[in-house]
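Course assignment 3, question 2. Fill in each field.
Student: A.L.
Task: Predict the tertiary structure for the chain below.
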Amino acid sequence: VLDPSGKPHPTNTRAQLEAIINDTVLDPTGKPHPTNTRAQLEAIINDKVKAEAPLFGFEQEYTMLSKGGHVFGWPTGGFPAPQGPFYCGVGAESVYGRDLAEAHMDACVKAGLIISGINAEVMPGQWEFQIGPVGALEVGDQVMIARWLLHRLGEEFGIIATFAPKPMKGDWNGTGAHTNYSTESMRKDGGMRAIEDAIEKLSKCHPEHIAQYGYGNEERLTGKHETCDINTFRYGVADRGSSIRIPLPVQLAGKGYLEDRRPAANVDPYTVARLLIKNTILA
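Answer field:
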């Protein structure tokens, strides 16, 4: 049963006005369905959580594929040059699929989503868009709508967007959903203490997060390609090989946010928000 909630997000991706409705899935009795992770998140947002006003920035990576399953832009039956020149690249020799990535960004803007940007990623044919900063429920709502728009526009371009954590085996980066997270205590002067306290709490529940941070994530979190090994919890400043990264500007300012680098690209954004709130603010 679908219970329409939230405001419509208008978009003209079909050259006419459409409305995308964020729906809440209920069982036949009218209660939230067991798979309704949005309801599970909403249930823990109490006065303590509201007082901390958590904000999220969701970095959604994805890989473009041809209809035959080949990475879009890669040579037929072969491979591009090794990774290096593709991240935030420019030029036909380095960037594949920009037309879809930019059309998707435009559609998100027209739909009223808080999209902060896009960039070509480390593996050619891999892209990222960023949603946020927004609140806990909003990050899930907007990421889900943005994913839908990506798939819908892919039909127009003949491109499949996959969120598989490791679409190409071997010496290629996986595909993640790094999540930037802050609370009021982290953002105010002296907030580094709150950030460090949150990281200490997260270190004690690493398996719980890993179990819910995306199917197939073990193929991505190997300790290589800018990841920390899936069985290890480590944090660091400006460390792309950590589980939790403290950005250098945050350390210099002594306040701000942390980056959870563990979620896979196919993770449920409502689940990420719920676990971070549950195991920091409510722990």
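Instructor remarks: The first strand starts at residue 2 and ends at 11. The longest helix spans residues 136-157.
Grade: pending
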